[in-house]
């Protein structure tokens, strides 16, 4: 095919991968990376994911949810002094922290699932380090220019213009960092109230120090540490190898199509040559500073910017896209053998991960739906185990706690099953003194603690320990909570 | 073997000069950032010695220019805690014992304070769970030597039992029937059998029959007819399963023969009045209060 009129010269960018084998020494000084701007599908995908994730992060604390006059009206709130976690219509007490644990486990298993499908998709698109670094690089490019301009600026001597640009860039970075820290603390307190108190310097010092820490981390990790975090600090790259198999997708350079690489000039024929024109655009675009043509490597976060860069060049010279593409090891082998490479999405590994994730999700959902708003905990006295009274009966003492998780006050009745002839006495009940079924008024959203004595005639106790069940009933709604304990007596 | 100036081939870095079985060690310099942090921490240490308590002397220690002491911190925290409790303590001091029992907020406060005062002052004799030991009453049950109303309990705690420190201390004397030669061994044994029969324990019926008139003559005056006890004299009830010194024949015989005289400090002379109130409310709430 004749491309002489349409295809331009492809200039070779002067850039070298930071992890080239020839340059490896025992101690490697960091080389600053200036990723070049690219346009393409994956770049667009990254922007969308950035907008969505950052949008969720910054906006969520401001969403309101009405829970009545006695409760906070923030939709997502981690109320540490009040010991509650609010998520829209869900309200969790600290004892129910296992929901959070379940969510974290699901996040982990979900991540394993995604990795088994698309490799390091988390790293390249959704990881906070990637997202904020991407944002910071965008700001840097906006203020200081694209790759070439930034390298020249770095090399140039001191000038007012350079100082001005640097200061402006750092100022914007600082604003983003403070906003990031601020958004974090807004999850832990009522956002409008805290925002006002922050600017009037009346907020608690922990708010300021948390914002300071997060400002420092965002600024240094996103502004300066960048790829060093992924290569040296993060454990995830080293774990992901266990979740990927030969069918997982990874950013792959098709060296059977691209090698041997050779520069391309306008008018050159395409016969008897490979597709890679050695333009180094893939290396220049890489935020990790590596050369994907060296093959799969630890540093590659599969952000696919090199794919966009290469596809752009291929389009310009009229070659098919896909010299670098998402491909799996086994798929590539199949392609080279002449079969369709195919996407094996349904494998034992992926199905197992998905099944586990869904299973945990279903269990948690059921637990959440079945969650009762009335709970009773009974702690039996251990010191002394039992008391012999003057009429010969045996008495056990208990501390029992009523957890009223509803938002209304209620009246509750306590009954005990399993001990014939027993008498109950509660210290602090409404009706005082001994009664068969003492009743209590409890306030909304509170834990009440009472002392309870159960006496049973000595002759009735056949064993040293008798199983008893405490039942708490809400007369109005009929909801019940129970707790199993034992009643101890002397040795028989 | 010392081998100075050996340059390692692979890295081009000088070695430390020693060799162990052919192994050499690269003499890399310490990272600069690490070194400077180390020097900074030395400077900081000097500053710290000057500002804070640091060095031990023969009988004391260097106090530091800032005058900080963790003991002062503790004192301040204790004072703050006392300050926080001020309002409730004042209410407690004014309220009567009955008022405290019926007001849920005051009751909660008094029980908490009473529990902690009990653990510090009373648990050594009465046990950590107030269950008592031999000779020290179980405060959980409903038998009271000196009365179980909250007023009685308050009085007992305040003035104590058989102590010389307080004129109002509760007191009584049980005769030592063998030592005083009032009864002989055989008679004491019979009375002991009778006492066992009063509480429904296994006993020798014939001996109990013999002991009954002796009991009527010598014991009823304090311990009451049928052994129901008398709080005025601190005489325990003998007709139940609760025993202060033990319920088997040997112990009862010993008690009758040599008598018993429990002692309790007069806490009113040691603790603040509001603490005594808290203790009275707490003990009364243990389940046996009348």
Detailed description of the structure:
The complex is a heterodimer of chains A (492) and B (290). In chain A, a hairpin with a 6-residue loop joins strand 10 and strand 11. In chain A, the strands form four sheets. In chain A, strands 6, 7, 8, 10, 11 and 13 form a six-stranded antiparallel β-sheet that branches. Chain A has helices at residues 41-59, 98-118, 121-126, 128-144, 147-155, 160-186, 191-199, 205-225, 227-233, 236-243, 255-258, 281-285, 305-316, 329-336, 348-369; strands spanning 76-79, 84-87, 90-92, 250-253, 324-327, 374-380, 387-388, 394-404, 410-417, 423-427, 434-435, 439-442, 446-456, 465-474, 480-488. Chain A folds into three domains: 1-19 and 99-121 and 231-370, no CATH class; 34-63 and 127-225, no CATH class; 374-488, Immunoglobulin-like (Sandwich), CATH 2.60.40.10. Chain A is elongated and about 110 Å long. By secondary structure, chain A is an alpha+beta fold. The model of chain A is unreliable at 1-6 (pLDDT under 50). Chain A starts with 40 loop residues before the first helix and ends with a strand. By secondary structure, chain B is mostly helical. Helix content of chain B is 48%, strand content 0%. Chain B is built from eleven helices and no strands. Chain B has helices at 32-51, 70-94, 97-102, 104-121, 123-126, 150-159, 185-198, 205-218, 220-223, 249-258, 273-285. Chain B is elongated and about 110 Å long. Chain B starts with 31 loop residues before the first helix and ends in a 5-residue tail after the last helix. Chain A binds chain B through residues 25-27, 381-384, 387-392, 395, 397, 425, 427-428, 451, 453, and chain B through 11, 28, 104, 107-108, 127-131, 138, 140-143, 237, 240-242, 285-288.
């Amino acid at each position: 095919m004749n491309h002489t009129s349409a295809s331009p010269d492809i200039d070779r960018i002067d850039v070298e991968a930071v992890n080239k084998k020839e340059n490896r020494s025992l101690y490697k000084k960091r080389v600053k990376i200036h990723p070049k701007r690219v346009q393409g599908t994956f770049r667009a995908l990254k922007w969308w994911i950035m907008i969505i994730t950052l949008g969720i992060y910054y906006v969520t604390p401001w969403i309101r949810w009405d829970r009545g006059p006695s409760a906070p009206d923030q939709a997502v709130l981690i109320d540490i002094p009040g010991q509650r976690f609010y998520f829209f219509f869900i309200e969790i007490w600290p004892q129910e922290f296992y929901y959070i644990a379940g969510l974290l486990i699901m996040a982990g298993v979900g991540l394993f699932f995604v990795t088994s499908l698309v490799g390091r998709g988390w790293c390249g698109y959704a990881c906070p380090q990637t997202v904020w670094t991407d944002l910071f690089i965008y700001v840097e490019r906006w203020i200081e220019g694209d790759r070439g301009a930034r390298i020249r600026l770095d090399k140039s001597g001191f000038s007012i213009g350079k100082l001005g640009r640097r200061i402006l860039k750092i100022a914007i970075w600082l604003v983003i960092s403070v906003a990031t820290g601020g958004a974090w603390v807004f999850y832990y307190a009522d956002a409008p109230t805290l925002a006002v108190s922050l600017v009037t310097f009346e907020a608690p010092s922990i708010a300021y120090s948390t914002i300071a820490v997060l400002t420092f981390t965002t600024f240094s990790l996103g502004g300066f540490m960048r790829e060093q975090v992924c290569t040296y600090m993060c454990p995830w790259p080293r774990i992901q190898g266990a979740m990927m198999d030969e069918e997982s997708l990874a950013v792959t350079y098709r060296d059977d199509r691209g090698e041997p690489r050779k520069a391309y000039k306008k008018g050159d024929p395409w016969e008897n040559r490979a597709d890679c024109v050695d333009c180094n655009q893939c290396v220049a675009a890489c935020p990790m500073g590596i050369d994907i043509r060296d093959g799969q490597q630890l540093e590659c976060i599969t952000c696919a910017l090199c794919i966009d860069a290469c596809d752009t060049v291929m389009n310009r010279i009229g070659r098919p896209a896909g010299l670098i593409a998402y491909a799996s090891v086994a798929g590539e082998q199949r392609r080279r053998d002449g079969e369709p490479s195919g996407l094996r999405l349904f494998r034992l590994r992926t199905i197992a991960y998905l099944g586990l994730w869904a299973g945990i999700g279903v269990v948690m959902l059921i637990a959440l739906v079945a969650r009762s708003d009335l709970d009773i905990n009974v702690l039996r006295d251990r010191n002394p185990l039992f008391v012999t009274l003057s009429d010969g009966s045996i008495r056990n003492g208990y501390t029992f706690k009523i957890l009223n998780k509803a938002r209304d006050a209620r009246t509750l009745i306590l009954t005990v099953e399993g001990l014939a002839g027993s008498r109950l006495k509660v210290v602090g009940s409404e009706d005082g003194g001994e009664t068969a079924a003492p009743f209590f008024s409890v306030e909304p959203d509170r834990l009440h603690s009472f002392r309870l004595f159960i006496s049973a005639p000595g002759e009735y106790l056949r064993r040293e320990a008798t199983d008893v069940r405490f039942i708490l009933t809400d007369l109005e709604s009929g909801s019940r909570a129970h707790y199993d304990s034992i009643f101890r007596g002397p040795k028989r | 073997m010392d081998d100075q100036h050996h340059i390692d081939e692979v890295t081009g870095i000088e070695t430390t000069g020693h060799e162990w079985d052919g192994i050499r060690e690269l003499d890399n310099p310490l990272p600069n950032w690490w070194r400077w942090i180390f020097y900074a921490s030395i400077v900081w240490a000097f500053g710290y010695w000057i500002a804070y308590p640091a060095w031990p002397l023969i009988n004391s220690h260097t106090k530091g220019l800032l005058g900080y002491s963790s003991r002062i911190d503790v004192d301040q925290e204790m004072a703050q805690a006392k300050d926080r409790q001020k309002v409730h303590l004042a209410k407690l001091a004014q309220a009567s014992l009955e008022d405290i029992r019926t007001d849920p907020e005051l009751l909660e406060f008094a029980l908490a304070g009473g529990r902690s005062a009990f653990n510090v002052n009373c648990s050594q004799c009465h046990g950590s769970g107030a269950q008592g030991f031999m000779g020290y009453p179980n405060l959980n049950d409903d038998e009271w030597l000196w009365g179980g109303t909250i007023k009685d309990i308050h009085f007992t705690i305040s003035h104590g039992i058989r102590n010389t420190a307080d004129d109002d201390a509760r007191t009584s004397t049980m005769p030592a029937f063998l030592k005083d030669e009032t009864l002989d061994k055989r008679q004491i044994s019979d009375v002991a059998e009778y006492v066992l029969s009063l509480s429904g324990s296994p006993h020798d019926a014939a001996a109990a029959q013999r002991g009954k008139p002796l009991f009527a003559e010598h014991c009823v005056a304090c311990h009451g007819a049928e052994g129901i006890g008398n709080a005025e004299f601190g005489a325990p009830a003998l007709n139940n399963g609760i025993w202060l010194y033990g319920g088997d024949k040997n112990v009862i015989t010993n008690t009758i023969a040599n008598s018993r005289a429990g002692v309790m400090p007069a806490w009113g002379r040691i603790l603040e009045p509001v603490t005594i109130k808290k203790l009275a409310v707490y003990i009364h709430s243990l389940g046996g209060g009348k």
